[in-house]
Amino acid sequence: MAGHGSNVHSAELASRPGRDGLMSALARWAFISVSLAFLAALLFAPLATVFVTAFGKGLGAYFASFSDSDTAAAIKLTLITAAIVVPLNTIFGLAASWAIAKFDFKGKSFLITLIDLPIAVSPVISGLVYVLMFGLQGWFGAWLQEHNISIIFALPGIVLATLFVTFPYVARELIPLMEQLGNDEEEAAITLGAGGWMTFFRVTLPKIRWGLVYGVILCNARAMGEFGAVSVVSGHIRGLTNTMPLHIEILYNEYAFVSAFAVASLLTLLAVATLVIKTLVEWRTGYRRRR
Amino acid sequence: MSFRQPSILPGFGLTFGFTTFFLGAVVLLPLTALVVRTAMTDWHHVWDVVSSARALASYRLSFGASLLAASINAVFGFIIAWTLVRYDFPGRKIIDALIDMPFALPTAVSGIALTAVFAQNGWFGKYLEPFGIKVAYTWIGIVIALTLIGLPFVVRSVQPALAEVQRDLEDAAETLGAGRFYVFLRIILPTVLPSLATGFTMAFARAVGEYGSVIFIAGNLPLKTEITPLLIVIRLEEFDYGGAAALGFVMLLISFVMLLTINLLQAWGRRRLVGDRR
Amino acid sequence: MTSDSMAQSGSTLSALLIVAASALLFAGCGGSEPAGGATADTVALLNVSYDPTREFYREFDTSFAREWQEKTGQTVTVKQSHGGSGQQARAVIDGLDADVVTLALAYDIDSIQQIGKRLGADWQTRLPNNSSPYTSTIVFLVRKGNPKGIHDWSDLVKPGIESIAPNPKTGGGARWVYLAAWGFELQRNLGGDFGKLADPAAADEVAKAQIAAEKFVGQLYSQIPVLDSGARGSTNTFVQRGIGDVLIAWENEALLAIKEMGPGSVEMVIPSISILAEPPVALVDTVVDRKGTRKVAEAYLQHLFTPAGQLLAAKHFYRPRDSAALEQYRAQFPDINLFTIDAAFGGWQKAQATHFADGATFDRISQGRR
What we know:
The complex is a heterotrimer of chains A (291), B (278) and C (370). Chain A has 291 residues and is mainly α. Chain A has two domains: 8-53, no CATH class; 55-290, Orthogonal Bundle (MetI-like fold). In chain A, 75% of the residues lie in helices and 0% in strands. Chain A contains 14 helices and no strands. Chain A has helices at 10-14, 22-54, 58-64, 69-102, 108-120, 123-134, 141-146, 155-166, 169-181, 184-191, 196-225, 228-234, 244-253, 257-285. In chain A, helix 2 crosses helix 14, helix 6 packs parallel to helix 12 (228-234) and helix 8 crosses helix 11 (196-225). The longest helix of chain A has 34 residues, at 69-102. Chain B contains 13 helices and no strands. Chain B has helices at residues 12-40, 43-51, 53-86, 92-98, 101-104, 107-118, 125-128, 139-164, 167-175, 180-209, 212-217, 228-237, 241-274. Chain C contains 16 helices and 13 strands. Chain C has two domains: 37-133 and 279-332, D-Maltodextrin-Binding Protein, domain 2 (3-Layer(aba) Sandwich); 138-275 and 340-367, D-Maltodextrin-Binding Protein, domain 2, CATH 3.40.190. Chain C is 49% helix and 14% strand. Chain C is globular. In chain C, helix 2 (54-72) runs antiparallel to helix 12, helix 6 packs across helix 7 (203-222) and helix 7 (203-222) packs across helix 16. Classes of the chains: A mainly alpha (291), B mainly alpha (278), C alpha/beta (370). Chains in contact: A-B, A-C, B-C. At the A-B interface, helix 1, helix 2, helix 4, helix 5 and helix 6 of A face helix 1, helix 3, helix 4, helix 5 and helix 6 of B.
């Protein structure tokens, strides 16, 4: 996926000749209104609902939602899962983008397609494949049970399903970025005698730093928010194998709407924080100016 | 005939080896389980499941709604990208950042929240209700949910392309007497088209498989508002692993084809814009 | 050559990483609290249950833990999992290590036995009352004041009436609902006599009645705008989202909804006849033997049949078997005319095959929607 936001200098916006006519102003007004209306209906309203319902019974009820032991366990499980999944996918993302962006080889498009596959695969399928592999009726199920190893309906299964679903996120951020940034600096470093690792850490990493941060944050947000795939492999054991999104569904089904939306608001805040960090990062480094 | 172009940069073997190994272990191996399970199932049954009226209705819904949602995103996403790139207004930066929200928001949360907003007694639902427009639990609700999750793909694809449109070309054309619409059609659109196509296809691919945000707002009525992923879950619940795998395999194939298309489109776009400088 | 060795080291590195990650995971799952297993003074059980029993088992588990502690000094923690009955059965078949299963219908436990081979075929005879500690039935929940005048099953197919019920393909209660509706129309066409079903002389009448029942149920489901996957989902749709004129639900769900939402918003309507639903319980032999929790699990299930357990069930709106408990909660459980699944359908195996299997009546009815 190419690029993120826009960072057009205001000078460019302002000084266009012939832009001050009535038609232009009308067009501008129309575009902005339509955009805002569309976003309001689709994006802002649901977000607002989450917070309005979460705080609907006051701050006391909001914070009380988190003292329930099942909720605390769900939060812990989500955090552990993300802590395992994100580093693994980050390492993969770095390796894949180095191999793909820095070198020319046959079948590159095919490889990129394979890496992108989990995004287009339905989460239900992502969960199903692990049931097919590790379930009692699946490939390894009987063997695993004999050796008392639990994969599905336990943490490992949840981690695997999440790993699958968030697999491409860091790679997708880094590949176009590294392609865009080119090989010149690295090649210069090599010709000057730097080794591979030193080049990577001293030359490449600083260049892609902010793209990496963004990719990691996005991967993290997705890992914490995954619902469909985890739902299939989880077993829904309260206090043990329910992640935050699953727990939200449970709370919602038990008439505990304030609690459900309170936990949902945590995940939403995480998403908001993701974007705040990203905006901050872009603003601080003017990284877009490298184009 | 060489596999790759020579380069002075080191590390290809290491990174390529690791990439393919990890890819194989995490993505390909599990997907193989799907393929194998389908292959192991009796072909008649596979065909029955995959071509049953219910499955066909669900493909129509899943793919139809996704196509519609991606199209809506193409139009509105373009408008929004245009607005963000070309105009400045208070709050532009915030709105710009919020575009990524559907990407980061958990699908279950979007699902529950959208249902709450568009149900008969919801914030927007109650205004639409008197006009007889039912959103929640109809295909309209499904399209809305799918539009939401696909939004960032189009906007984020189009924005950089729009920003890259060579302004001097535009200006030159205008000084030579071209109307705004002509400029749009001949200069802006061609530049932006590959990214628009990429964004559209990505939004489409994402929407087709979506489960979490749709399952709350869909009515789940067989033959009417049942999406394909739900059919897979139902097959599982009937202990029909073969049937579930078969449906999953069909979806997987289609996803793969779409993704390949996207990547080829992106390659086309790159060649048009910057020439092959890789 | 460098490339090759680097590719090799690449694969080695990744293999190492995966092994390390796996070790981490297994260590994690070994060290964390397992959902079962016994030591000298603590033991953990996993109860895999169906959708509406959440509130009930929360209290029941505490009650059982207290009693077990007093009796044996052992601390027992019961972990719960809830979901659609069919979904839960599937999970257990796929390896979810339930010590006990407490599901909505016997067919689901039979599936665990037949497909998953995780418990003995005689499970239903091990506990009293066919292993059903309580019963329930299917009733209607309507808006306050019953504005649409719903009094019986036939009112549900009046034009313009929208009902809410869950999906029989994924829910347990959903299947009871379907069968209750079918049974109603069936007996209406048989003059109220299910005995005719077994009477060869009445074969014609029975055939006509079955056709009428299929038509009735088809009409009913065509007037359902939303099919949630479980009982609780349907309750939410009706109560929270305000969709539909009547909710066809478990009696316990209806009573709970009234309690949670307040009697000012919804009220219960008892139909002229309904089905006797007997949600069964069982222990999963292979699991309890492997984990050594058989004694606790047996005691847990037996606790359901004790006066304390029965009172708790009644409190949570399930009709108890124990007459003393029933007496105490008489006001809550009005008299209903009930028929059994055996009388009307010849048992669960037949009912499942005739109605819910692939291509059976529910599928036929769904086709007919268009």
